[in-house]
Structures are given as C-alpha cells and as structure tokens.
Amino acid sequence: MGFTGIDYSHLKTSLHFQRQRNKDRVLKLRRFTDQGNWQNPGNTPSDIGPDGLIAGNLPYIDQMPPEQAKAIAAIRDKIGQSRLGNQLLIIADQGQVQMGFELGGEGSGYEAAYYPTIRDVMINGDGSLLEAKSSRDFVARAALYTAHELGHVVQDYAIGESGILDQLDVTTNVRDRLLAVRHMEAAAVACSIQVAWDVKEAGDDSLWKIALHTPGERSAALAFGRLAVNDPEAAKDGRARRLAHDDWFHDVARMNDYDEGTLDQFQAGLKVLAAQQQAGFPDPQAAETAKHAGKMMIGTSAFLDYTAMPDGVEHMRVGGDANFRDSQYRPLPNKRLAEKMIRLEAIAEKLRDNVPVHEADFAQVAGVDAKYDDTEYAKPKPRDSDNGHPIAVSTLSSWRHNRASHAPTPTPTPGGR
After folding, report:
1. Is the pTM of this model over 0.90?
2. Structure letter (DSSP) for residue 217
C-alpha cells in the first residue's frame, strides 16, 4: 500500500508532537572519523544485499516514529523508480547515509539538506514541503529535493574515495573553489532533473510536474525536456543532462549567492591562519597550510569527480573532453564580490610569503561590503535557493549549510571540510 492521505496526516501529527517536545531531530548524531572509507566508516559495516541496497529494514528506521519511517520509505521508493535514482540510493546505503526529518525552526526556509560530516540527508519538517496539498504532491516534492541532496552524497563519496577529501579547503585557489562549487550545484540540479524524467518515463509524472513548477528546476527541466522529447536517446546518453547542467549557469543572481558563501568560507579559513601567524604558528600544520593558502589548482579529474553520477553517464564528456573552465562557467562575480575576492587573494599571498596579516587587512574586506551598501551589488540577506536550500550562508553550497550545528565537534584539521 502506498503513502496515503491518512499517512500524510499522521506524518504531520508526528512532526507536530516532535515540535512540542522541542526535539529538532530523532536520529542519533554520528561522526565518521574515516571519511575516506565510504563503505565501512568507523569499522561498522552495513548489511548490504545483493542489489547493493541495505538488506531488510534500514538500521536507523527503528529510531524514527513509524509515521516518519513510512514517509521515508515512500520517498525512497519514488526515487528508486529511476535507474539513476536507484544508483544514488545504493551509494547512500553503502555509505550508511541516514534519511529522516529535522525541524529547522520557524523561518528556516530550506526544504532539505545533506550534512557530510554526519552523513545525514534531512528533510525540514518546518519547511514548506509539509504544506503540500496532497500525499502524492508531498512525496513527489520530497523525492525531487532528496534526489538533489543524494547528488551531493555522491559528490561526497567521490571526493573521499578519490583521495582529495580536503580538495576544497583554504589551500585551494579561490577562483577554482568558486568554479567547483558552481559545478557541484549544477550537477546536483541536473541529477534531480534526470531522476524526475526517468520516473516520468516509468509512468509517474509527479516529479516532472514539480520540476516544471519549481523556480530552480524549471529552466533546467525545460532545457532537458525539449531535447529529450525530440531525441529520446539524449535522455540516456548525457546530452539532455548536460543541457540541464549548463542551464544552471544562466542564473547570475543564483550563482552570485553561491559565490558569496564560498568567499565567506575562504575568508574564515584565512582568519584562522592569520591568528596562527600572529601567535607564531603554535600548530605546525597551520604553518604548512599557510605556505599554500589559496594556491592549489583543481585538476580536470577532480572536476569530473564533482559532477559524475553513478549511472555511468558522464554528461560533462558529451561532445569530447570536458572543459570545466569554459568561459560560460567562469564569469566573474558581481563587482562587490570580485573586489572582495581580489582582497582575499592578497591576504592569501601574504600568508604564503609569511608577511604579517593584520586586522586592517580584513577590515578592508569588510569595507568592500559597506562600500556597496544600497546598491544593486549589496550583500544580500540569506534567502532560499531555488529548491529550498539556504544558500547565502554556505561554503560548498546548500549541502554544507549549518553542518557544524548538527555534528559533534570534530577533531580540527587546518582547512578541513
């Protein structure tokens, strides 16, 4: 039996009582110290069946109220109707990724998020998803947003497995860091569009209709759909997915939002190194990190890791070798962000050369924001992204949002994720 209207009502009741108990989540917090070991982190192997998925009940289901567990099962079933979606679930299960509900609080706005450190994909019970008019609409919306987050799960898996776990840290060239975040988000959107199309082709158009009416997905879905309708093979060989990926870069305002978060995180890393420098580098690892601040470039193989999906279709290779640095992908941020980026690059250079960095250097960065107040380039207040993720406060896009507040305090590493 599917997820019915009564089930949907029971889910909302369950989240209501959870809210009354001031409990933001029911799943236990975890920390994986061996992030590079995807299938057996912490020496706790999963019971993986012959199909690659968790055998029997998901190990975390017993922690959840049955109403929430039934909703998660329905969402997984919907995603699993897609070949790509099924592969996403396999990667998630093998990495012991949990899926559940959290209460982000009134006004939190986002619909779903992935927290890499604790490997949780969480649906926000305080978001607008629970305002869906029907159980079918709720499952479709939740499945579309969850497919997006599972796209980030696969990126987390690929980064760890390829040995570049800390690729996007303070040592990364900030312009490459901006480019990587853009491609990661574009790939996650393309992933959710592919899943929605696959499910439609399997006879259920609920996800596709949601994609066509969701601001962040609509344009990408139209680009994908136009080609796929005229050339069905394009939906299978990566050409339609590539169009959806490239479409992400047409929304300059959205791209600036992600660039904002990336620059904020780069600045935070530089401040940590500057404090270490002023103290004489009591942490020798920080001294070594400072020598490479903002220096390391990202190679093509790493970009492929950020964008590849587990169905074997490398959409960025369509038409030949991928060119992740094509001009369409790397327009400069707006005037304020471009000026801020240049000042941060100057601070990184000082750290590399062990030239003293002072508070005045960071005050100049803050002055850039003040300079553009009351202009079209003013720093925006945090707002929802196109499918409900808070993006103006993030480092590696919405999937990094607020992970520190959900995870146990990790052992600090210089410039770590």
Report:
1. no
2. H
